[in-house]
Amino acid sequence: MHKINLLLILTLILCFLDSNTDAYKILVLFPFIAKSHWLLFEYLIEELLEHGHEVTAITSFKPDRGLTLNGHENYTEVLIEPPFDRKKMVSLTSFYERKDHSHIESLLNIYNIGLATAKYGLESKNVQKMIKGHDASFDIIVTEQFMQESWLMFAYKYKVPVVALNTFGYSDAYDRIYGYYTPWSIVPHHLLPYTDEMNFIERYHNALLCLTDWILRSFYHYPEQQKLIDRYFIPHIKQNSTEILPDIYELERKVALIMINSHVALDHPRPSMPNIINVGGIHLRPTKPLPRDLREFIEGARHGVIYFSFGSSIQGADMPKHLQLAFINVFKNLPQRILWKWEGEIPTNIPDNVLIWKWFPQHDILAHPNIVLFITHGGLFSLQESLFNGIPMFIIPFFNDQFKNAERSTREGYALTQKVHELNEKILMETIVELINNKKYIERAKEVQEIFKDNLMDPMDKAIYWIEYVAKHKKA
């Protein structure tokens, strides 16, 4: 009897040891300030914790209350405090008033905010402690690949491989990391709405913008990122190293794997490298039950519900008064009910068919069968969530890739788009009525939905597999 008990105890111990053999210590780097990007990382971190890994995250965001990160024994956060104030660099109100946009200006904005947030994070007290400290150790780094290349110096400090996750989609800069040069004749720049079948003028425009992007990255962005390394890392690393320290280019070349928030249902065909992996839809988790009052509002709508949100960056309170009034007048004359995400002081005279909240569980709402239309800014995450649920879109873009997303979605037949400065009651009403009453838009959205959901491997499972693979083998 004692022998049986002893064997049972030994078996349990061996099972426990085996289950923890492949548990890794993971450092997540997220100095950027986009809440929507961080939500993707939250879901990824939660999944890593469920696989038994220990995760330390450098971020400006505290965990969402609905996630298991809160109080998890294997999760440690290193907060960048206070959070970077984006409004010091970008006037969000001006996006409503802008009549045109420059792709070069968009590139400069992306590089500048990347540099600013990288510098701000490195200066923070908690991050400085990590840079100067020598006690911590990790097996792998997972970082957002969004214009903060100086942070790759953490990989040299801890002597670990890096897996990067790009939330923005493809860029030919990632091809160049691995020695491949993207053919500009068939691959459009990530800010342009062109297809892989460009005419001569489009190819010329594309080549010009790609060349400009390469010049800005090579002669402005990378040198500035190198200055951040020299200022914030080198003085502390040199004290403990006689090696020749890597520069920004070598650090980037040593990134083992890049995961791209891209999917064949939403992107044009393009050549790529084997260590660039598509994980588009990684943030699309199983839906959760809606709060009772929200569910009753949606299910009580006889003619369906329109969901209206401009994402986490464009605030409702920044909307000009005349545009607020135009939306209100249109909404009160629609038979549908409207869910309107709004931050700040709520406008007066809100119709009875409109429910305004500061935050909505967007993916859970779009999954409800009573949703008939999504009014959106056209951000990539919103686009993916809408198509994953087969919902047509009215896209009103504001900056960066949103214009490309809007034009492509219109061309593909599951959306219509309008410029924000051209909006009035007539245009709003005509566009909304067309999208709801003409069934070709929802039929096309359902077609794309089928392709989007038909994956050989779940995007989250794919991401976890490759992170664990790189941690185990120290390379891809």
Automatic annotation (TrEMBL):
It catalyses: glucuronate acceptor + UDP-alpha-D-glucuronate = acceptor beta-D-glucuronoside + UDP + H(+). Keywords: Glycosyltransferase, Signal, Transferase. It is a single-pass membrane protein. SUPFAM superfamilies: UDP-Glycosyltransferase/glycogen phosphorylase (SSF53756). GO terms for cellular component: membrane. It is an enzyme of class 2 (transferase). InterPro entries: UDP-glycosyltransferase (IPR050271), UDP_glucos_trans (IPR002213), UDP_glycos_trans_CS (IPR035595). It is found in: Membrane. Pfam families: UDPGT. The keyword Transferase applies. Its EC number is 2.4.1.17. Its main location: membrane. GO terms for molecular function: glucuronosyltransferase activity. CDD domains: GT1_Gtf-like. Residues 1-23 form the signal peptide. It comes from the Eukaryota. Belongs to the UDP-glycosyltransferase family. This is UDP-glucuronosyltransferase.
